């Protein structure tokens, strides 16, 4: 049955639509932190549908909210008042930390970043955007145009002029040998120099931790230092929280808070985990920025009642069960367990991350050269052992990505780490 489905997939879907594994699997159902495939195999899920199943698979509180809302009305568009949308917007506005915040809902992180770019370029009357090297912001025409990761940017054509800044990757690049203080200072000097050579940009967009890029990040405080420079020139700061939001990093509810010395960003985007699998994305911005558009607009599917009901139930569960605290506690234990598992494996260059957002960078032993074959082999071996993980990496890098639902317990973390240890040691 799976082989037949794979053939049908290949006959009607694009060649560039990536599938994991030499023998791709069909996931048919899930519960808690586990999923099952069409052959009945059970897996511990350490990737959550690309960081999207944030709380748990088949969480009763969320499935109940979806079912009850579906029994009333599924959709009406933003042309009509929508109580669940208003209620979720109120909660996100308050949690965002952005003063006088307005919230606009979309159906994905890509669309959220598109909207943020539209707002910033309109508000600033500039189509120049600063982005980080090794970044990823989506698959639309404009978001591909600012993505600093060649593997996920299929065209150089763009409605925007994009200039790339140093700093998103701590352990590679021209400043890698510096200590954190000097690394930040060098990146700030580079930013200042770059701004001296271009027309005034609209905004800097940055992921606090780069997701697709392999869970890389700068030292805490880099974007706060950048903001000092940007603020002097009126340039906006957009924080892409599609993967770092909702407490996944453990230490903070939003990734930007590790760089929040001078307060929140001007614009923040979110998606993935808030819907726990339902299609929710969005933008939060100060009212003066959100309201700068001088043309009519609506959203047909952004903020539809059924997704908003799911988001409300999911956010309530996350807050009431302190899943941010769980990500900090269990994630801290898991990263130490992973570091111990990786010790003595020559292909492991670095284990990094925070909370339940952990990356393992693999290279050819004794070099800094990426080894995507090793990453693929570990992915396969982990699946064979009953564990699903992800992959990533940017320029000349290959990394494994670990991002379980935030309700992961200690026993499951230990089980996953043991499977991962066997998978890593299989490539020696």
Number of strands: 15
Quote the average pLDDT: 96
Please identify the oligomeric state: single chain
Radius of gyration: 21 Å
Uncertain regions: pLDDT < 50 for 5+ in a row?
A: none
The helix/strand class is alpha/beta
Question: β content, as a range?
Answer: 15-25%
Distance between the termini: 35 Å
**Helix-strand pattern, N to C?**
HEEEHHHEHEHEHEHEEEHHHEEHEEEH
| Helix content class | 25-40%
Main-sheet strand order equals 4-10-9-8-7-5-6
| Biggest sheet character | 7 strands, mixed
Query: What is the overall shape?
Result: globular
How many helices in DSSP terms? 13
Written description of the protein model:
By secondary structure, the chain is an alpha/beta fold. 37% of the residues lie in helices and 16% in strands. The protein has helices at residues 2-12, 48-51, 60-70, 83-96, 109-124, 141-146, 180-195, 222-232, 287-290, 305-320, 323-342, 372-384, 410-425; strands at residues 27-31, 34-37, 42-45, 101-106, 128-132, 161-165, 203-206, 236-240, 267-270, 281-286, 348-354, 357-362, 387-388, 390-392, 399-402. The two termini are 35 Å apart. The mean pLDDT is 96.
Key attributes of the depicted protein:
single chain, 428 residues, alpha/beta, seven-stranded mixed beta sheet, four-stranded mixed beta sheet, globular
């Amino acid at each position: 049955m799976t082989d037949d489905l794979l053939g049908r997939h290949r006959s009607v879907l694009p060649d560039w639509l990536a599938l994991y594994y030499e023998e791709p699997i069909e996931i048919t159902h899930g519960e808690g932190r586990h999923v099952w495939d069409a052959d009945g195999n059970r897996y511990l899920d350490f990737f959550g549908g690309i960081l999207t199943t944030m709380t748990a698979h088949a969480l009763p509180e969320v499935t109940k909210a979806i079912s009850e809302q579906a029994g009333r009305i599924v959709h009406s568009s933003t042309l009509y008042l929508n109580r669940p949308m208003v209620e979720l917007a109120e909660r996100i506005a308050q949690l965002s930390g952005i003063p006088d915040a307005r919230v606009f809902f979309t159906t994905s992180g890509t669309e959220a970043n598109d909207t943020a770019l539209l707002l910033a370029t309109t508000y600033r009357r500039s189509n120049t955007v600063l982005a980080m090297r090794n970044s990823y912001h989506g698959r639309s025409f404009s978001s591909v145009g600012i993505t600093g990761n060649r593997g996920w940017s299929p065209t150089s054509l763009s409605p925007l002029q994009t200039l790339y800044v140093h700093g998103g990757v701590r352990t590679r690049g021209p400043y890698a040998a510096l200590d954190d203080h000097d690394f930040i200072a060098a990146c700030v000097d580079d930013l200042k120099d770059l701004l001296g050579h271009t027309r005034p940009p609209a905004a800097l967009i940055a992921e606090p931790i780069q997701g697709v890029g392999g869970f890389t990040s700068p030292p805490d405080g880099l974007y706060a230092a950048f903001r000092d420079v940007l603020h002097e020139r009126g340039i906006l700061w957009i924080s892409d929280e599609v993967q770092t939001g909702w407490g996944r990093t453990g230490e903070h509810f939003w990734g930007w808070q590790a760089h929040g010395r001078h307060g929140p960003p001007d614009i923040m985007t979110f998606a993935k985990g808030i819907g726990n699998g339902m299609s929710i994305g969005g933008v939060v911005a100060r009212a003066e920025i959100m309201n700068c558009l001088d043309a009519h607009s609506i959203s047909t599917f952004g903020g539809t009642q059924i997704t908003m009901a799911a988001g409300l139930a999911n956010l309530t569960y996350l807050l009431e069960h302190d899943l941010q605290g769980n990500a900090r506690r269990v994630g801290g234990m898991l990263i130490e367990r992973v570091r111990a598992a990786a010790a003595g494996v020559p292909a492991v260059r670095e284990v990094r991350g925070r909370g339940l957002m952990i990356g393992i960078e693999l290279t050819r032993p004794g070099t800094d050269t990426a080894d995507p074959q090793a990453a693929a082999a570990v992915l396969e071996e982990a699946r064979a052992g009953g564990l699903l993980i992800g992959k990533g990496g940017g320029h000349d890098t290959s990394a494994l990505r670990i991002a379980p639902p935030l309700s992961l317990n200690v026993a499951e973390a230990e089980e996953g780490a043991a499977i991962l240890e066997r998978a890593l040691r299989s490539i020696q």
